[in-house]
Specification:
By secondary structure, the chain is α+β, with helices and mostly antiparallel strands. The protein is 58% helix and 12% strand. The protein contains 11 helices and 8 strands. 24% of the residues are buried.
């Protein structure tokens, strides 16, 4: 595909390749003139011009079409090796070939250019839609916590003496929650920026998955007062060589998504296993699950399910997928038969056991 793009942008290469192909086809037909008649040669050359018209610009293909007509006349139409045409029927046939070749070349390139403009327009519309989605998400997700922080600080400054200790603690709590929310959204934007720029460089080391998961659960404690997170440490797990910070971010985004969008009282279960050199992590909940016709879109950037609670930019699961792919791994989601959704993260990683690691 890269070679074709270079040819499309280089007129000299189009002339060389076009006339070269016509020459090779004409030479092959000339050497086989006893097996095929000159009418068949016309069809073969027309086919070649039509195929080239799908790739080349209009001026090169027009000149190639004229050249193919002259070659067919000189080498194939009786009497051969002259531009003189012997019969009125052949004059008409040559004229028709000439006109058809030019029209075919012209209209094929016009159609291709029109299709290209349609694709460009669709890409622009898609980009504008994506930009508007991002702008709307950011305007809400960044402005809301900033407004909360500014409002709480103003209240503390203006009414510090009048406020009770309980009211002050409530305002401090609002500032803390808003600060964490703001930090999370900025972090998501920075992570997506790294993924978009292919700037991910894994910082691999040996990690205990039990410890990573407990860290993620601890960091989500503030959001799980109405939920239950269940994880039983698996002492049989080896150490995995991976980027621990990115793995924590994957787990955090999935668990945070479950805490945000499942009903109060929902249970989130986490399980870890390993198969040969693969680390397999399953995160399941007993919420409502995903609509079957929307489940394939949950990892798209800025995508949020219709009629969901406000909050979030729709980047969390997309980032989780990107970080998994950075490990040459995968992540998928499916609805459980008993209700709810299950995310499965598979990460290829070297393994070793603690005793072996300590001996090293």
């Amino acid at each position: 595909m890269d070679v074709l793009e270079k040819v499309r942008k280089n007129s000299k290469q189009q002339y060389l390749l076009g006339f070269g192909l016509i020459f090779i086809i004409s030479l092959s037909c000339y050497l086989s003139i006893d097996l095929i008649n000159y009418h068949s040669v016309a069809l073969i050359l027309l086919l070649a011009v039509s195929l080239l018209a799908m790739l080349f610009e209009v001026l090169p293909i027009m000149l190639i079409a004229i050249g193919s007509a002259l070659i067919w006349n000189f080498f194939f139409i009786p009497p051969r090796h002259t531009f003189h045409v012997g019969t009125p029927e052949d004059v008409l046939l040559f004229s028709m070939y000439f006109v058809i070749a030019l029209m075919n070349a012209f209209f094929t390139t016009r159609i291709r250019n029109a299709e290209s403009k349609v694709r460009d327009k669709e890409e622009r519309e898609k980009t504008i839609k994506l930009y508007n989605t991002l702008l709307n998400s950011l305007s809400h997700e960044l402005r809301t916590p900033i407004s909360t922080i500014v409002g709480a600080i103003d209240t503390l400054k203006e009414n510090s003496v009048k406020l009770s200790e309980e009211n002050k603690m409530e305002l401090y709590s609002e500032i803390d929650i808003a600060g964490h929310r703001l930090n999370r959204q900025v972090g998501n934007l920075l992570s997506m920026s790294r993924l978009e720029s292919d700037f991910i460089q894994l910082q691999v080391d040996w990690y205990d998955m039990n410890e990573l998961i407990h860290n993620v659960i601890q960091n989500n404690q503030d959001g799980c007062s109405n939920h239950t997170i269940i994880y039983e440490s698996n002492d049989q797990l080896p150490l995995f060589k991976m980027d621990g910070a990115l793995i924590e971010q994957i787990l955090h985004n999935i668990i945070h998504n479950a805490l945000q969008y499942t009903p109060p009282g929902s249970i989130i279960e986490i399980g870890v296993d390993h198969e040969e050199s693969l680390c397999k992590i399953e995160i399941a909940d007993n919420g409502k699950g995903f609509p079957e016709d929307k489940i394939n879109a949950v990892f798209d950037k800025f995508y949020r399910l219709p009629n969901t609670a406000t909050g979030g930019t729709g980047l969390g699961l997309s980032i989780a997928k990107g970080f998994a792919q950075a490990h040459n791994g995968s992540i998928k989601v499916e609805n459980r038969l008993t209700g709810g959704a299950k995310f499965t993260v598979i990460i290829p990683a070297e393994t070793t056991y603690l005793n072996t690691y300590e001996n090293e």
